[in-house]
UniProtKB/TrEMBL annotation:
Native species: Stephania cephalantha
Keywords: Amino-acid transport, Membrane, Transmembrane, Transmembrane helix, Transport
Transmembrane domains' residue ranges: 49-70, 77-98, 137-158, 179-196, 202-223, 292-314, 334-358, 393-410, 416-434, 455-475
Location within or outside the cell: Membrane
Region (Disordered): 26-45
Stated name of the protein: Amino acid transporter transmembrane domain-containing protein
Any GO BP annotation: amino acid transport
Amino acid sequence: MRSENADAETGKGGGVEDVAADIEALDLQKAPNGDQVDDDGRPKRTGTMWTASAHIITAVIGSGVLSLAWCTAQLGYIAGPASILTFSLVTFYTSTLLTDCYRSPDPVTGKRNHSYMEAVRANLGGTMHMFCGLAQYFNIVGISIGYNITSTMSLVAIQRSHCFHKRGRDASCAASHNIFMIAYGIVQMILSQIPNIHELSWLSTIAAVMSFTYSIIGVVLSASRIISGDTGKATLGGVEVGPNLTESQKIWQTFTALGNIAFAYTYSVILIEIQDTIRAPAENKEMRKASLVGVTTTTLFYILCGSVGYAAFGNDAPGNLLTGFYKPLWLIDFANICIVVHLVGAFQVFCQPLFSAVETWASKRSNMSNITTKDYPVKIGNKFKYNINLFRLVWRTIFVALATVLAMAMPFFNDILGLLGALGYWPLTVYFPVQMYITQKRIGRFTYRWIGLKVLNICCFLVALCAASGAIHGMSKALREAKPFKGNL
């Protein structure tokens, strides 16, 4: 363990292990002097518990909330809300463990870890740091694809609702998703030029407001449908085995639903990066408060959306809650627009760690240093000025373009969410926070606390394994039936 840490600190590790140290060195070079710097020489942070809460809500309430009515339909009135509550408790508990790993070795006075990967390296060594990087970046890429798919479904829903309004509910209103995916990608290419997460507070605030708005609209529309009596069949056990559903299909869909719920709580992947925006001192205390506000708020919305949505549609609940409504037209259109605006912001928040890692790695290469570090000022009018970095412009544009192409090839909403939730939740939300906490606090083997943390780790791993198998099964079936790039949803 010590030898790995020593290698990482001296820069002798290769590839992924050097990224965190490179980020620190580069930021120190750019840092201002005097009162504008923190204790480690970096630019002074200005974030608060409330801005961190906005980042969390932006990251947590995403496309996952729209699938919760479908998840509840697979699990039932009892197991559905119970699963949502269980995931929320686990997420909040492990997030409190992770906040204490922001500084090492002491959570209050230790050296700052500016990223999730840096925290893993400081506590677990270079090898685990590499595996964390692979899990984090794979999850970020997957989320960027999932958000494109979800935003496109909302835009397609607007187009189809207008078609149904004009031609009737029985009309054929198939809509092409390719043009919407490309448009979404272009917007992200522009916004991805925002340099770092510290400059995204305004976008996160807007996105958080949008997430509350469309969640409330979904609940209100579901409640109005319940009041009108136009509801589907709902049971305590969820979708029932019968002529249209075999026992094995029921099991696979249950597993996929668990993955969807896990995806709805995947924000630990950027928790350390969010905490790094909070001004000193006592960042861990402020981050705990922000996590409590964020997770509690989102859980209330999740249970409402899941339970009320299931009550409204019953066992026929759609994979995306808002796609099941067609009236009032203006309100549904507004809700879908809110989804798109929110996911535009969430995409940027989630992708910043990957953007930063690649650009810092490139800046340390001598043959690329002039391209990666030089900014070109561009003026628009007399007041607006923006610095364009050529490497950032090219690399982030390529990344967004690739994510858009992959989204066009895999428009499978629930299965994609289930797989991303399964692959991202256990390692990043449970395993690494638990292992870092055990190491930092020097918790003895086979003590009650050690056993409890290990049991939590194993249980979450088994749930993730089931969720991944269900999602893969669903995707394999969808791939046999779907026609990638054909452009219809």
